[in-house]
Amino acid sequence: MISIAICDDDKEVIDQIKERISKYSTAHSVEFDVHSFRCGEKLLETDMNYDLIFLDIEMSGIDGLKTAQAIRQIDRRSRIVYVTSHSEFALRSYSVHPFDFVLKPFEDERIDNVLDELMRYLAENSEKDVVIQLKGEDGPLLLTLKNIYVFEYTGNRRITVYTKSETYRIRGSLSDVFALINSESFVSPHKSFIINMEHIDKLNNFTLYTTNGLEIPVAQKKLKEFQKEFSRFIKHYIRQE
Fold this sequence. Notes:
Layout lengths: L1 E6 L3 H18 L3 E6 L2 H5 L7 E5 L7 H11 L5 E5 L4 H5 L6 E4 L4 H18 L5 E6 L2 E6 L5 E6 L2 E5 L4 E5 L2 H8 L4 E5 L2 E4 L3 E5 L2 E4 L4 E3 L5 H18 L1
Parallel strand pairs: 1-2, 1-3, 3-4, 4-5
Antiparallel strand pairs: 6-7, 8-9, 8-12, 9-10, 11-12, 13-14, 14-15
Helix pairs in contact: 1-5
């Protein structure tokens, strides 16, 4: 089931989008789980596990742009569709990588277009939910690749694997890991670490910070190479968004 959030302080707009999603669901035999919110604060109180978010830019309290910035701190891959009455907000909204932009008032077909694009995106990216099997200390360990944040080599062929909130111990070398994951999202900024660039929050001097609070050193001799790889990744990521 595809999960969608609608955040708008105008109930009529929420109802219009919900009705169109319902008709699209019937016409295309697709199940949607739709949640609606009248302000950004309420949206941010949820788990933020949405495939698509329709987000009004001009809301009282936290406006849509600030809400989007907060969303990006939680989930950098969420697909946000900005909804507004003023086209000049479009350029400002692109600082947080929108999936699409809908100008009010809109025809029902405009929502259909967004949903069509979402379905194409999900179909094209479904193969990214790759599951890998690692050599856990107590037997085979299966993890979804995109949920892995960091691999840290701790010596004696022991590696710590960090996800958002869990850590796991596996056996092997970082070269073994690189051969297994075969993903351009991962890079080694230091001889003891492999990091998933999807989960990088910022780089400060020679320290990387992940979105879940880990601090990863960047070797001085690898800094330029890492910056080049990360720049390439970001350009590719923006095109996907």
